Amino acid sequence: MSHSRDADRQQNRVCRLMLIEDDPVFRLGLAACLQSFDDLQVVLEADSPARALQLLRELPDEMETADRSVAPARSLNLIILNLDLGQTTASQGLGLALCQQLRTQYADTPLLLLGATLELTRLATAFQSGAGGYCLKGTSVTELVTAIRQVASGQPYWTEGIQAIAQSLNTPVPNTTSLTAQTARPLTDRAPQNTLPAISGSQNLLTVWRRNVRESGVRQIERAIAELDDQLQTADRSVLDQLVLEGQRRELRTARWLVKRLLKTSDEPAPELGSQVSLPTDASRSLQPDHRSQAIANPSEPLADERSTALAETIVNDIQSPLTALFQATVAKLQNRLPNLTATALEIDVLKDEKKRELLYTVLRSLQASLEALRLSNLPPEQLEIRHRVILQDIWQATVIDFFGKYYTVQMGTQPIDVVAVLLQDLDIVQTAILDKMPLFPEFLAHLLFQTPLTIDDANYAAGTVEAMARMELLLQNVMLQIANAVMQPLLNRFGDLVAIKQTFYDKRLLSSRDVERFRNDLSWKYRTDRLFAEPTAIFESQFNLLVLTDNGISKTAIYAPRSDELAQLAGLPFLVTLALEARDAIAPRLRIAISFLGRGVVYVLTEVIGRGIGLIGRGMIKGIGNALQDTKPNRNSERWR
């Protein structure tokens, strides 16, 4: 057991913490709780701002005088600060002042804030000063540890804080009872704290400040967009420059919408997103699909950008970290162009760019709703392995209904056809061809729902670590892209050459019947070659091939995972492929050595034997020619000179 824990310590870098808390009971309890986690270590404690700053000033001196092998133990990875510092005395506001001072003097060290309430003014100021995250003191130990790991790795954790700020900026002030009921301090009694209504005295000043910042920011963004528009009208730009400028313009449009949304004053309406992209959030925190059949016919690229922003905002409000960071990273990458950079065809290649992006957003929304339902259902972790096929089916069905519209119909001859009902009949085909081959989906769910450690290259990584977040981002993108392919596969099989479908969904390069049939044949050959060659090769090499998003488009990447059980079940031609690979691995090195030896021998013979022989022959011929020329020259003693 100790050997395993030592191995985990080597794999996961120990996070060294400084705890600034004026309540000795809470400070002692928190330090004791964190001792049970091998990757977390409280190395400094302070009960006042003066003591905290003194310890931080002494830290560099200790590192300079200490032995080099001991110096890393004195470095800090995270500062945990009580934002309510000084509330038990007459010195209120010390926590916020110390937060600003720490971000000014020690900006390289991440800062996580703790507090008993969700007070808007302090949260907004702390957020703007650069604090990495905020947690309520009533937060569970598991969630607090996740926040510590996430902020220490450089990723923000503002789920509760941003939710409070967004609700206060964009909606009427909620009932403070619901906020304070779950934020009671468990370890010590405190005086009542001012909650959100306490800012009413400074509401006018805050409103003016928000309006000025919003108008100034919008003007700057619009000037930048106008400059980009002028640059895009230049005809002599390369394709790469064109793509970069278009991406920058989309980012600026999203930033403009965010500025208008987050800095909106209470007397102004929120920026309209349209009914097509509304993502409802109710009191139960569920995210229901928006069933529609008419709205999908005329999307636009700005609308897709607004959809991504709305989805990101909904995720922040409705799902807890680290899932928030994963979805936000994926949504950000969806703003780029999505060309297929793999060497094989994908079902979503047939779609227009805006339709492709809309489908991927729909998959994310369905996946989000499924995760929320699983979280509320209290499903035990051991059931995920058994029920993950059903979960994938539900996500696929919800995406089909949401993307096409539950009542979407097309005319075939004289009879209207219910598209969704026909597509759902191909569940078994889709399940066999795509969904059953989704790699590591049970582990993906277990890590998100139960913070189960993720195994990466035979090492376990806890939830919130950098390695786990990077791997989970790859798995999330692969799930999203594969489900999108699964949605399009029955459409291509059932309605591939229907004019109404082609006009609504297809890219202009695939409108003719010949192009559609060629594309379908490419897909058929891809599945055959994958089943017979690519998949056995991946199993034999203990790899999974994932579809991921990059800055340039959709590409493939391979990750390591043990697949011995699948290798033992191979039979027929796939098994022969593995035998051929094994034979090549066994013969090829020896054959290369033999060929290299023979090659060196041939080179030796040609240069040292034949080459030297030819050289001697050449020298003899040249010498003979020289002697012959010398004999033909007239001699002064000859008869010619007499």
Please give the structural blueprint.
Elements: H1 2-11, E1 15-20, H2 24-34, E2 40-46, H3 49-65, E3 78-82, H4 94-105, E4 111-115, H5 120-129, E5 133-136, H6 141-152, H7 159-170, H8 176-180, H9 203-232, H10 239-262, H11 301-318, H12 323-333, H13 353-377, H14 384-404, E6 409-412, E7 415-418, H15 419-424, H16 427-433, H17 441-450, E8 454-456, E9 459-461, H18 466-495, H19 499-505, H20 513-540, E10 543-549, E11 554-560, H21 564-569, H22 573-632
Parallel strand pairs: 1-2, 1-3, 3-4, 4-5
Antiparallel strand pairs: 6-7, 8-9, 10-11
Helix pairs in contact: 4-5, 5-7, 9-10, 10-11, 11-12, 11-13, 12-18, 13-14, 13-18, 14-18, 16-18, 20-22
Shape summary = extended
Mean pLDDT: 78
Largest sheet: 5 strands, parallel
Count helical runs. 22
Q: From the helix content, strand content and strand pairing, which structural class follows?
A: alpha/beta
* Poorly predicted segments: 1-5, 7-11, 62-73, 169-203, 270-305, 307-320
Give the tally of structural domains: 3
Q: What's the number of extended β-strand segments?
A: 11
Q: Percentage of helical residues?
A: 55-70%
Radius of gyration: 34 Å
- Terminus-to-terminus distance: 115 Å
Strands across the major sheet, in which order?
Answer: 2-1-3-4-5
Q: What fraction of the residues are assigned to beta strands by DSSP?
A: 5-15%
Write a structural description.
Helix 4 packs parallel to helix 5 (120-129). The radius of gyration is 34 Å and the shape is extended. The strands form 4 sheets. The protein has a 5-stranded parallel β-sheet, with helices on both faces. Strands 6-7 form a two-stranded antiparallel ribbon. The chain has 3 domains: 2-194, 3-Layer(aba) Sandwich (Rossmann fold); 272-569, no CATH class; 587-631. It contains 22 helices and 11 strands. It has helices spanning 2-11, 24-34, 49-65, 94-105, 120-129, 141-152, 159-170, 176-180, 203-232, 239-262, 301-318, 323-333, 353-377, 384-404, 419-424, 427-433, 441-450, 466-495, 499-505, 513-540, 564-569, 573-632; strands at residues 15-20, 40-46, 78-82, 111-115, 133-136, 409-412, 415-418, 454-456, 459-461, 543-549, 554-560. A hairpin with a 2-residue loop joins strand 8 and strand 9 (459-461). The N and C termini lie far apart (115 Å). The chain is α/β, with parallel strands linked by helices and 642 residues long.
